[in-house]
Every structure is written in C-alpha cells, then in structure tokens.
C-alpha cells in the first residue's frame, strides 16, 4: 500500500501545483490591467515593478490554494480512472476509502499553507501594496511640483513653486490658487513639504508660515488669514489605491488586528457582523482543503464520455458550486439572517453533503468480474481490466 500511496502523491502534487498556477493566473488577470497602467503611466523601474508584483500576488493566495488542490485531486483520480488503474485497484480489493488516505495527508499540508496564506501572507501583500502605491503617488506629486512654473495637474488647484529641495522634499516660495469650493482662495506660504497619509488615502502638501487670501461675495469682504501651518490635500489619481483598499477591507488585517477591531467596534456599539463573518472564514475557507480531499477523488472517479477533459470540467463545476455557496453565505451572514459562524461554515457543510453522496455512489457499487475480463459494477458502470 505504501507503493500505491507514493504513486498517488507523485501524481497529485505536480497536478496540484499546475492547477494552483492556473488558478492564480486567472485571479491575477483582473489586477494585471491596472498594474500595467500604473507601471506605464508612472514609468516605474524594474525594482519598483518587481515590488508591485510581489505585493499583488499574495493578495489572491488565500483562495487559490483550495481551488488548486480540488483540481489536482479531481485530475489525479480521473487520470487513474481513465487509464483503468482505479478498476484494477478495486478488483484487488482496495476500497475507495483506503485510496483517499494520501489525499487527506496532502490535504492537511494544504490546509496549513492556505490558513497561513489567508491570515498572514495576504494581509502582508495588501498592506505592502498600499504603502507602495502611496510612495508612487508621493513621487508623482513631487514630479508635478516643478520650480518656477505654474502647474494645474491637481484638480481644482494651481501651483507655483519658487524653489525645490529634492533631498528634503521641501519647497519654498509657494503660491496656490484653490478653486475647489464656491469661495475661491489664494494661499501663499514661505515653505511646504509633502506628506503621505496611507490610512486616509491622501497625499498632503503641508504649508508653513503663510497667508490665506479669501473674497466672500455674499459679505463683500476680503479676508486675510495668517497661519503657522496649513494642509492642502492633493487630489491625485489614486484609483489604484482606492481599488486595492476597497477590494481588501478586512482582508488587509492580520488576525490580531482583526480581533482588536472587532472588540473596538463592539465596545462602541457598532455593527461588527462583517468582521466576525470574515474571522470565521479565516478557518472555514482553508478547511475546504480537507473536504476537497474527498470531493476531488469522488468527482474524478465519475465516469463520463468526455474523455480526459472531463476532469477539468468536473473540477471547474465543483469550484463554481463552491463559489456560489460562498457568495450566498456572505449575503446571508451580513444581513442578520444567519449567525456569522454558521454562515461562514455553511458552504463547507453543503460540500460535505455532496462529497458523502458521491462517495457513497462509488463505494457501495460492489465489483464482480464478468465474461471476457470485463469488470461490472452494480451501478451499471463498465470498465476493462
């Protein structure tokens, strides 16, 4: 039996790695377009582009490993079934349950890797991506604030800078015309510096020792306001930053940060259902690898007339069903119809039922050897021995 286990593992691991690469590529496609746009528009060098890629890839790692493992299990058993290896093993008295042992062994490893990726690798990618995006935004803002030239690159603002100090990222002799509100104002300042505020998705020009000139037509008065420090928020093209932050949400929080945020919201009486739902999904989603160790072989052993392509079709069908269940559980868990814990584990419970049903179909079909070396199952399936 150890020989059979090693044979299955040697077949399973490469197929899982290939399927993982394909799944990662599919999930990565929607991010590839705006990554390319960011690189080309800001003329990023190789180092910055490599950092962008390294931070973006982990953001899809939490879901792709269970999907890749399901495809690997399905393709492994389907290949063995298509080459009649499964029939030979069953004719030798080896049950389907015994054949699942190596699948569950690899599933435990896949569960650990998936949980680690979802809890630590993915948040690391989201947080690193946010920092990188705003570093790029800051560099772009500094690029537009050229000395001794009027610049209107920022929406509603016109800048003029007398001198710049690249090393300190500081400006001197600043003139700003602010047309973003109904009351136009002109700001002059002796110096200023750029500040990045990733938490607020903002790049700020902090002015020091200046005057605000404001004319209010309703009052027919001209106001002068002296200030020691004044912040001007720059309206940069931070579409990538807002998109990454919007798609991340709680996914950019490490487990201890997520627990702290749940406690903070509950202490303030705020709704924390979405956070609690995601907390339970941190454990439920990786556990799908354990379930897929039974579902994948059950799908792969299913006999069809589609040839070897049936393994791909069945694994895609299983992924589609699981994705629908995940979407439904999110909707039910966020609108108070179900408790967050039950909603998070509901897709796994449904897949357990489907797995048990398919395995029962294969296990309880007893095998007998018919005429001319034909293997006949009670459920009507026929395979050559």
Folded structure, characterized:
This protein has 385 residues and is of the alpha+beta class. The protein has 2 domains: 2-137 and 245-368, no CATH class; 155-235. The chain is 60% helix and 19% strand. The protein has helices spanning 2-42, 46-56, 61-82, 85-91, 96-99, 101-144, 239-248, 255-267, 273-300, 309-334, 340-363; strands at residues 150-151, 157-165, 170-178, 185-197, 202-216, 221-234, 367-369, 374-377, 382-384. The strands form 2 sheets. The chain has a 6-stranded antiparallel beta sheet with strand order 1-2-3-4-5-6. A 3-stranded antiparallel beta sheet has the order 7-8-9, covered by helices on one side. Strand 5 (202-216) and strand 6 form a beta hairpin. The longest helix has 44 residues, at 101-144. The chain is elongated, with a radius of gyration of 30 Å. The two termini are 20 Å apart.
Mean pLDDT: 79
Helical amount among residues, as a percent range? Answer: 55-70%
Give the helix/strand class. Answer: alpha+beta
Strand content: 15-25%
* Molecular shape: elongated
How many strand elements?
9
Q: How do the helices and strands follow one another from N- to C-terminus? A: HHHHHHEEEEEEHHHHHEEE
Major β-sheet annotation: 6 strands, antiparallel
Model regions low in confidence, pLDDT < 50 over at least 5 residues: 238-248, 366-385
Please list the strands of the largest sheet in the order they lie side by side.
Answer: 1-2-3-4-5-6
Count of runs of 4 or more consecutive helical residues: 11
């Amino acid at each position: 039996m150890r020989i059979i286990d090693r044979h299955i593992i040697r077949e399973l691991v490469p197929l899982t790695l290939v399927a993982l690469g394909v799944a990662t590529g599919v999930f990565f496609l929607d991010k590839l377009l705006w990554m390319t746009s960011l690189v080309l528009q800001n003329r990023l060098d190789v180092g910055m582009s490599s950092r962008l890629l390294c931070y973006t890839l982990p953001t899809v790692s939490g879901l792709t490993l269970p999907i890749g493992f399901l495809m690997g299990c399905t393709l492994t058993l389907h290949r063995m079934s298509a080459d009649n290896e499964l029939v030979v093993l069953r004719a030798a008295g080896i049950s389907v349950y015994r054949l699942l042992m190596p699948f569950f062994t690899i599933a435990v490893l896949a569960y650990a890797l998936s949980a680690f990726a979802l809890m630590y690798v993915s948040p690391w990618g989201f947080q690193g991506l946010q920092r990188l995006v705003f570093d790029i935004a800051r560099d772009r803002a500094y690029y537009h604030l050229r000395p001794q030239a009027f610049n209107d690159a920022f929406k509603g603002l016109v800048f003029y800078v007398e001198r710049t100090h690249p090393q300190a990222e500081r400006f001197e002799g600043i003139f700003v015309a602010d047309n973003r509100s109904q009351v136009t104002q002109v700001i002059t300042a002796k110096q200023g510096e750029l500040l990045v505020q990733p938490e607020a998705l903002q790049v700020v020009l902090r002015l020091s020792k200046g005057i605000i000139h404001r004319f209010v037509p309703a009052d027919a008065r001209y106001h002068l306001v002296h200030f020691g420090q004044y912040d001007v928020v720059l309206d940069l093209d931070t579409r990538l930053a807002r998109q990454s932050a919007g798609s991340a949400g709680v996914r950019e929080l490490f487990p201890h940060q997520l627990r702290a945020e749940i406690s903070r919201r509950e202490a303030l009486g705020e709704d924390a259902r979405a956070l609690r739902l995601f907390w339970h999904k941190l454990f439920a989603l990786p556990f799908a690898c354990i379930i897929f160790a039974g579902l994948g072989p059950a799908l792969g052993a299913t006999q069809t007339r589609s040839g070897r392509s049936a393994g791909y079709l069945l694994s895609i069908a299983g992924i589609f069903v699981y994705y629908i269940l995940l979407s439904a559980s999110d909707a039910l868990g966020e609108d108070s119809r179900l408790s967050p814990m039950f909603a998070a584990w509901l897709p796994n419970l449904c897949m357990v039922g489907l797995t048990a049903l398919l395995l029962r179909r294969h296990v309880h079909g007893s095998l007998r050897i018919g005429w001319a070396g034909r293997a006949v199952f009670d459920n009507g399936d026929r395979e050559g021995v």
